[in-house]
Amino acid sequence: MSETTFDIPPNLAKKLRTARHVAVLTGAGVSAESGIPTFRDAQTGLWAKYDPQELATPQAFQQNPRLVWDWYAWRRELVARAAPNPAHIALAELERHVPQYTLITQNVDGLHQQAGSRNVVELHGNIARTKCFVEDVVVEHWDETSDIPPRCPHCGGPLRPDVVWFGERLPEAALLAAQDAARHCDMFFSIGTSGVVEPAASLPFMALKQGATVVIVNPESKPSPGPTLYGLNGPAGTVLPALLRAAWQ
Ligand code: BV8
User: Fold this and answer.
1) Which of 247, 142, 240, 245 is nearest to 190 (CA)?
2) How far apart are CA 160 and CA 129, in angstroms?
3) Which is catalytic among the residues 21, 88, 97, 124?
4) Which domains does the chain have, with CATH numbers?
5) Segment-wise mean pLDDT, segments of 10 residues, the chain, 249 residues
6) Among this protein's residues, is 154 annotated catalytic?
7) Which atom in ligand 1 lies closest to the alpha carbon of residue 72?
8) To test ligand 1's pocket by mutation, which of 43, 198, 215 has the most ligand atoms within 8 angstroms of CB?
Protein backbone atom coordinates (compact mmCIF):
# COMPACT_ATOMS: atom_id res chain seq x y z
CA MET A 1 0.00 0.00 0.00
CA SER A 2 1.59 3.29 -0.99
CA GLU A 3 2.42 5.42 2.05
CA THR A 4 0.46 8.68 1.91
CA THR A 5 3.16 11.34 1.96
CA PHE A 6 3.24 15.04 2.58
CA ASP A 7 5.88 17.56 1.45
CA ILE A 8 7.68 18.95 4.50
CA PRO A 9 9.68 22.17 3.90
CA PRO A 10 13.37 21.10 4.26
CA ASN A 11 14.24 24.00 6.55
CA LEU A 12 11.39 22.99 8.88
CA ALA A 13 12.74 19.43 9.09
CA LYS A 14 16.21 20.84 9.90
CA LYS A 15 14.76 23.15 12.61
CA LEU A 16 12.98 20.19 14.21
CA ARG A 17 16.12 18.01 14.10
CA THR A 18 18.08 20.67 15.98
CA ALA A 19 15.28 21.89 18.29
CA ARG A 20 16.07 22.04 21.99
CA HIS A 21 12.56 22.36 23.48
CA VAL A 22 9.44 21.41 21.50
CA ALA A 23 5.94 22.18 22.79
CA VAL A 24 2.84 20.71 21.17
CA LEU A 25 -0.81 21.72 21.64
CA THR A 26 -3.41 19.26 20.35
CA GLY A 27 -7.16 19.54 19.86
CA ALA A 28 -9.97 17.27 18.74
CA GLY A 29 -8.59 17.07 15.18
CA VAL A 30 -5.77 14.79 16.37
CA SER A 31 -8.36 12.19 17.45
CA ALA A 32 -10.59 12.62 14.37
CA GLU A 33 -8.71 9.81 12.54
CA SER A 34 -9.37 7.58 15.54
CA GLY A 35 -13.08 7.94 14.87
CA ILE A 36 -13.87 10.45 17.62
CA PRO A 37 -15.99 13.32 16.18
CA THR A 38 -14.51 16.79 16.67
CA PHE A 39 -16.52 19.52 18.38
CA ARG A 40 -17.05 21.27 15.07
CA ASP A 41 -18.39 18.14 13.40
CA ALA A 42 -22.11 17.93 13.98
CA GLN A 43 -22.60 15.71 17.02
CA THR A 44 -23.81 12.50 15.39
CA GLY A 45 -27.04 10.62 15.88
CA LEU A 46 -28.89 11.09 19.16
CA TRP A 47 -26.78 14.09 20.05
CA ALA A 48 -27.04 15.94 16.75
CA LYS A 49 -29.45 18.48 18.23
CA TYR A 50 -27.23 19.46 21.16
CA ASP A 51 -24.42 22.04 21.12
CA PRO A 52 -21.42 20.82 23.15
CA GLN A 53 -20.97 24.32 24.51
CA GLU A 54 -24.47 24.03 25.96
CA LEU A 55 -23.92 20.59 27.49
CA ALA A 56 -20.34 21.01 28.77
CA THR A 57 -21.30 23.48 31.54
CA PRO A 58 -22.06 23.25 35.28
CA GLN A 59 -25.42 24.96 34.60
CA ALA A 60 -26.47 22.26 32.11
CA PHE A 61 -25.48 19.59 34.65
CA GLN A 62 -27.50 21.27 37.42
CA GLN A 63 -30.51 21.70 35.15
CA ASN A 64 -30.39 18.22 33.63
CA PRO A 65 -27.77 16.00 35.28
CA ARG A 66 -29.10 12.84 33.60
CA LEU A 67 -28.81 14.32 30.09
CA VAL A 68 -25.25 15.53 30.68
CA TRP A 69 -24.22 12.25 32.34
CA ASP A 70 -25.67 10.26 29.42
CA TRP A 71 -23.85 12.49 26.88
CA TYR A 72 -20.56 11.76 28.57
CA ALA A 73 -21.41 8.04 28.86
CA TRP A 74 -21.93 8.04 25.05
CA ARG A 75 -18.60 9.82 24.52
CA ARG A 76 -16.81 7.48 26.97
CA GLU A 77 -18.11 4.57 24.85
CA LEU A 78 -16.70 6.21 21.67
CA VAL A 79 -13.34 6.75 23.39
CA ALA A 80 -13.27 3.17 24.72
CA ARG A 81 -13.67 1.89 21.12
CA ALA A 82 -11.04 4.28 19.72
CA ALA A 83 -7.35 3.52 19.28
CA PRO A 84 -4.44 5.93 18.87
CA ASN A 85 -3.88 6.84 15.20
CA PRO A 86 -0.55 7.60 13.39
CA ALA A 87 -0.73 11.20 14.66
CA HIS A 88 -0.71 10.13 18.32
CA ILE A 89 2.03 7.59 17.58
CA ALA A 90 4.21 10.15 15.79
CA LEU A 91 3.85 12.56 18.73
CA ALA A 92 4.92 9.80 21.14
CA GLU A 93 7.95 9.09 18.89
CA LEU A 94 8.81 12.81 18.69
CA GLU A 95 9.17 12.85 22.48
CA ARG A 96 12.01 10.30 22.12
CA HIS A 97 13.95 12.53 19.68
CA VAL A 98 13.77 15.92 21.42
CA PRO A 99 15.78 16.91 24.52
CA GLN A 100 12.86 18.78 26.13
CA TYR A 101 9.27 18.06 25.09
CA THR A 102 5.88 19.17 26.44
CA LEU A 103 2.68 17.70 24.99
CA ILE A 104 -0.30 19.87 25.95
CA THR A 105 -3.73 18.56 25.03
CA GLN A 106 -7.25 19.98 25.09
CA ASN A 107 -8.55 16.45 24.47
CA VAL A 108 -10.07 14.39 27.26
CA ASP A 109 -9.75 10.98 25.53
CA GLY A 110 -6.38 9.82 26.93
CA LEU A 111 -5.23 8.63 23.48
CA HIS A 112 -1.84 10.38 23.76
CA GLN A 113 -1.02 8.35 26.86
CA GLN A 114 -2.29 5.17 25.16
CA ALA A 115 0.10 5.90 22.25
CA GLY A 116 3.03 6.06 24.68
CA SER A 117 3.39 9.82 25.29
CA ARG A 118 4.72 10.31 28.83
CA ASN A 119 4.79 14.02 29.66
CA VAL A 120 1.15 14.89 28.80
CA VAL A 121 -0.43 18.09 30.16
CA GLU A 122 -4.24 17.61 30.18
CA LEU A 123 -5.64 21.14 30.14
CA HIS A 124 -9.29 20.03 30.18
CA GLY A 125 -9.22 16.87 32.28
CA ASN A 126 -9.94 13.29 31.26
CA ILE A 127 -13.31 11.69 30.48
CA ALA A 128 -12.20 8.37 31.99
CA ARG A 129 -11.98 9.99 35.44
CA THR A 130 -15.10 10.70 37.53
CA LYS A 131 -15.41 13.13 40.43
CA CYS A 132 -17.99 14.27 42.97
CA PHE A 133 -19.88 17.38 41.81
CA VAL A 134 -20.13 18.58 45.44
CA GLU A 135 -16.72 17.69 46.94
CA ASP A 136 -14.72 18.07 43.69
CA VAL A 137 -12.66 14.97 44.47
CA VAL A 138 -12.00 12.04 42.11
CA VAL A 139 -14.14 8.97 42.88
CA GLU A 140 -13.01 5.56 41.61
CA HIS A 141 -15.72 3.24 42.93
CA TRP A 142 -19.42 3.76 43.55
CA ASP A 143 -22.54 1.63 43.91
CA GLU A 144 -24.23 1.06 40.57
CA THR A 145 -27.86 1.76 41.37
CA SER A 146 -30.70 3.00 39.18
CA ASP A 147 -29.53 6.56 39.96
CA ILE A 148 -28.29 8.48 36.88
CA PRO A 149 -25.92 10.22 37.55
CA PRO A 150 -24.62 7.78 40.19
CA ARG A 151 -24.15 9.15 43.72
CA CYS A 152 -20.91 9.93 45.55
CA PRO A 153 -20.18 7.18 48.14
CA HIS A 154 -18.89 9.83 50.61
CA CYS A 155 -21.56 12.55 50.50
CA GLY A 156 -24.34 11.24 48.26
CA GLY A 157 -23.88 14.13 45.81
CA PRO A 158 -24.12 13.52 42.03
CA LEU A 159 -21.00 12.25 40.25
CA ARG A 160 -19.70 14.04 37.12
CA PRO A 161 -16.88 13.54 34.61
CA ASP A 162 -13.50 14.96 35.70
CA VAL A 163 -13.33 17.39 32.77
CA VAL A 164 -13.18 21.21 32.71
CA TRP A 165 -16.53 22.67 31.66
CA PHE A 166 -17.04 26.10 30.06
CA GLY A 167 -16.91 28.73 32.78
CA GLU A 168 -14.73 26.51 35.01
CA ARG A 169 -11.07 27.15 35.88
CA LEU A 170 -8.44 24.96 34.27
CA PRO A 171 -6.25 22.88 36.63
CA GLU A 172 -3.72 25.44 37.89
CA ALA A 173 -0.62 23.23 37.54
CA ALA A 174 -1.57 22.16 34.00
CA LEU A 175 -2.17 25.72 32.82
CA LEU A 176 1.09 26.96 34.37
CA ALA A 177 3.05 24.08 32.78
CA ALA A 178 1.49 24.82 29.39
CA GLN A 179 2.21 28.55 29.60
CA ASP A 180 5.77 27.90 30.77
CA ALA A 181 6.36 25.60 27.79
CA ALA A 182 4.90 28.17 25.37
CA ARG A 183 7.18 30.87 26.83
CA HIS A 184 10.39 28.82 26.69
CA CYS A 185 10.12 26.48 23.70
CA ASP A 186 11.96 27.05 20.43
CA MET A 187 9.28 25.23 18.40
CA PHE A 188 5.52 25.17 19.07
CA PHE A 189 3.16 22.89 17.16
CA SER A 190 -0.59 23.60 17.18
CA ILE A 191 -2.24 20.44 15.83
CA GLY A 192 -5.90 19.71 15.11
CA THR A 193 -7.45 22.63 16.91
CA SER A 194 -9.74 25.42 15.73
CA GLY A 195 -8.05 27.69 18.28
CA VAL A 196 -11.28 29.14 19.66
CA VAL A 197 -11.35 28.05 23.30
CA GLU A 198 -9.41 30.11 25.83
CA PRO A 199 -7.02 30.08 27.56
CA ALA A 200 -5.55 27.24 25.38
CA ALA A 201 -6.00 29.33 22.23
CA SER A 202 -3.49 31.94 23.48
CA LEU A 203 -0.61 29.47 23.83
CA PRO A 204 0.61 29.56 20.19
CA PHE A 205 0.64 33.37 20.30
CA MET A 206 2.71 33.31 23.48
CA ALA A 207 5.23 31.10 21.68
CA LEU A 208 5.29 33.26 18.53
CA LYS A 209 5.77 36.39 20.66
CA GLN A 210 8.90 35.04 22.33
CA GLY A 211 10.44 34.07 19.00
CA ALA A 212 9.59 30.36 18.72
CA THR A 213 8.89 28.81 15.33
CA VAL A 214 5.17 28.00 15.25
CA VAL A 215 3.77 25.20 13.07
CA ILE A 216 0.01 24.83 12.51
CA VAL A 217 -1.08 21.34 11.40
CA ASN A 218 -4.68 21.37 10.19
CA PRO A 219 -6.42 20.48 6.89
CA GLU A 220 -7.99 23.93 7.03
CA SER A 221 -4.82 25.88 7.87
CA LYS A 222 -3.51 28.33 5.30
CA PRO A 223 -0.17 27.00 3.99
CA SER A 224 2.57 29.42 4.94
CA PRO A 225 6.28 28.93 4.19
CA GLY A 226 7.89 30.14 7.43
CA PRO A 227 10.47 31.15 8.63
CA THR A 228 8.73 31.59 12.01
CA LEU A 229 5.18 30.50 11.08
CA TYR A 230 4.45 27.37 9.05
CA GLY A 231 1.02 26.08 7.96
CA LEU A 232 1.00 22.38 7.05
CA ASN A 233 -2.49 21.87 5.66
CA GLY A 234 -3.20 18.19 5.81
CA PRO A 235 -4.52 15.60 8.26
CA ALA A 236 -2.28 15.09 11.29
CA GLY A 237 -2.19 11.32 10.68
CA THR A 238 -0.38 12.00 7.38
CA VAL A 239 1.58 15.19 8.16
CA LEU A 240 3.18 14.11 11.44
CA PRO A 241 4.68 10.78 10.26
CA ALA A 242 5.98 12.63 7.17
CA LEU A 243 7.52 15.29 9.43
CA LEU A 244 9.37 12.72 11.54
CA ARG A 245 10.60 10.91 8.39
CA ALA A 246 11.85 14.21 6.94
CA ALA A 247 13.69 15.11 10.15
CA TRP A 248 15.19 11.77 11.15
CA GLN A 249 15.30 9.37 8.23
C1 BV8 B 1 -12.04 29.61 31.74
C2 BV8 B 1 -13.66 19.62 28.10
C3 BV8 B 1 -12.15 31.27 33.42
C4 BV8 B 1 -15.11 19.25 28.24
C5 BV8 B 1 -13.60 21.77 26.92
C6 BV8 B 1 -11.65 34.76 26.49
C7 BV8 B 1 -12.35 35.15 25.37
C8 BV8 B 1 -13.58 34.56 25.04
C9 BV8 B 1 -14.12 33.55 25.86
C10 BV8 B 1 -13.40 33.17 26.97
C11 BV8 B 1 -12.19 33.76 27.29
N12 BV8 B 1 -11.74 33.18 28.45
C13 BV8 B 1 -12.63 32.26 28.85
C14 BV8 B 1 -13.66 32.22 27.97
C15 BV8 B 1 -14.82 31.34 28.05
C16 BV8 B 1 -14.51 29.96 27.48
C17 BV8 B 1 -14.21 30.03 26.00
O18 BV8 B 1 -13.06 30.01 25.59
N19 BV8 B 1 -15.27 30.07 25.22
C20 BV8 B 1 -15.10 30.02 23.79
C21 BV8 B 1 -16.28 29.23 23.19
C22 BV8 B 1 -15.04 31.41 23.23
N23 BV8 B 1 -13.42 29.34 28.18
C24 BV8 B 1 -13.68 28.70 29.34
O25 BV8 B 1 -14.78 28.68 29.85
C26 BV8 B 1 -12.51 28.00 30.01
N27 BV8 B 1 -12.50 28.41 31.39
O28 BV8 B 1 -11.48 30.35 30.99
O29 BV8 B 1 -12.34 29.91 33.04
C30 BV8 B 1 -12.42 31.37 34.87
C31 BV8 B 1 -11.59 32.17 35.65
C32 BV8 B 1 -11.86 32.32 36.98
C33 BV8 B 1 -12.94 31.63 37.59
C34 BV8 B 1 -13.74 30.79 36.81
C35 BV8 B 1 -13.49 30.66 35.44
C36 BV8 B 1 -12.72 26.50 30.01
C37 BV8 B 1 -12.63 25.99 28.60
C38 BV8 B 1 -12.61 24.44 28.61
C39 BV8 B 1 -13.93 23.90 28.13
N40 BV8 B 1 -13.85 22.43 28.03
N41 BV8 B 1 -13.45 20.43 26.89
C42 BV8 B 1 -15.53 18.26 27.18
O43 BV8 B 1 -14.71 17.82 26.35
O44 BV8 B 1 -16.73 17.92 27.19
S45 BV8 B 1 -13.42 22.65 25.50
C46 BV8 B 1 -13.51 21.59 24.19
O47 BV8 B 1 -13.82 22.38 23.07
C48 BV8 B 1 -12.20 20.94 23.83
O49 BV8 B 1 -11.46 20.55 24.96
C50 BV8 B 1 -11.50 21.97 23.01
O51 BV8 B 1 -10.80 22.89 23.81
C52 BV8 B 1 -12.66 22.69 22.38
C53 BV8 B 1 -12.85 22.18 20.97
O54 BV8 B 1 -11.83 22.74 20.25
P55 BV8 B 1 -10.90 21.84 19.31
O56 BV8 B 1 -10.23 20.81 20.12
O57 BV8 B 1 -10.08 22.79 18.56
O58 BV8 B 1 -11.90 21.07 18.37
P59 BV8 B 1 -12.74 21.69 17.18
O60 BV8 B 1 -13.75 20.67 16.83
O61 BV8 B 1 -13.17 23.09 17.52
O62 BV8 B 1 -11.67 21.83 15.98
C63 BV8 B 1 -11.08 20.68 15.43
C64 BV8 B 1 -10.02 21.16 14.46
O65 BV8 B 1 -9.34 20.01 13.95
C66 BV8 B 1 -10.58 21.91 13.28
O67 BV8 B 1 -9.82 23.08 13.06
C68 BV8 B 1 -10.40 20.93 12.10
O69 BV8 B 1 -10.11 21.61 10.90
C70 BV8 B 1 -9.21 20.14 12.54
N71 BV8 B 1 -9.12 18.78 12.04
C72 BV8 B 1 -10.12 17.95 11.67
N73 BV8 B 1 -9.60 16.76 11.28
C74 BV8 B 1 -8.25 16.84 11.43
C75 BV8 B 1 -7.95 18.12 11.91
N76 BV8 B 1 -6.68 18.53 12.15
C77 BV8 B 1 -5.69 17.65 11.91
N78 BV8 B 1 -5.90 16.38 11.45
C79 BV8 B 1 -7.16 15.95 11.19
N80 BV8 B 1 -7.36 14.71 10.72
Assistant:
1) 240
2) 9
3) 124
4) 1-36+84-124+170-249 (3.40.50.1220), 38-81+128-163 (3.30.1600.10)
5) 78 97 98 92 70 92 97 95 98 98 98 97 98 98 96 98 98 98 98 97 98 97 87 97 96
6) no
7) 44
8) 198
